[in-house]
Backbone:
């Protein structure tokens, strides 16, 4: 192998290792109690674009601002996931696509997400506005938490209401980091 081929090979191994660590973190479970979800989610109302208001820091979102998630229902009933963010360090948009599938059809609030085979992560909808204007998503391990809104900004009173719910469900909200949603360039 030439030096450039060796370098490219080592970079691909490193990237694969990081992806494996991220997938393990999504699937590992430390929660002692089951994570209670909302009673029911109408997926037709849930799909569309969401803005990340806050989340627990995760390696796969490092240096990200302007984070969004867009969901659409596939013909087979699964949900297409399109996550985007602007990486301020690399000064470019990043995108990750996945497929989500309902694990609990009685509620539609427990989903699994697969960014790449064979690793699957948990996506539990644990709070949801009646008008679907905001949502909070977590994992039973309590290692991941996202506060989402249909708008780039959320009233402080709503944010505080959601953090109180998260605390009641066993999440350490001291880990929450607000996501910058201003001065966002359109994704290309």
Residues:
């Amino acid at each position: 192998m030439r030096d450039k081929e060796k370098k490219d090979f080592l970079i691909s191994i490193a990237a694969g290792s990081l992806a494996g660590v991220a997938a393990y973190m999504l699937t590992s479970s430390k929660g002692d109690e089951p994570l209670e979800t909302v009673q029911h989610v109408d997926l037709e109302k849930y799909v569309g674009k969401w803005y990340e208001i806050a989340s627990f820091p995760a390696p796969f979102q490092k240096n990200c601002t302007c984070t969004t998630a867009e969901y659409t229902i596939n013909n087979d009933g699964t949900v297409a996931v399109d996550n985007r963010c602007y990486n301020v360090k690399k000064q470019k948009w990043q995108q990750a696509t996945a497929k989500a599938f309902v694990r609990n059809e009685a509620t539609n609030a427990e989903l699994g997400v697969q960014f790449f085979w064979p690793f699957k992560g948990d996506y539990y909808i644990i709070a949801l506005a009646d008008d679907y204007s905001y949502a909070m998503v977590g994992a039973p391990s309590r290692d991941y938490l996202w506060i989402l809104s249909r708008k780039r900004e959320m009233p402080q009173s709503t944010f505080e209401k959601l953090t109180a719910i998260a605390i009641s469900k066993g999440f350490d909200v001291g880990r929450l980091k607000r996501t910058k949603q201003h001065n966002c360039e359109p994704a290309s």
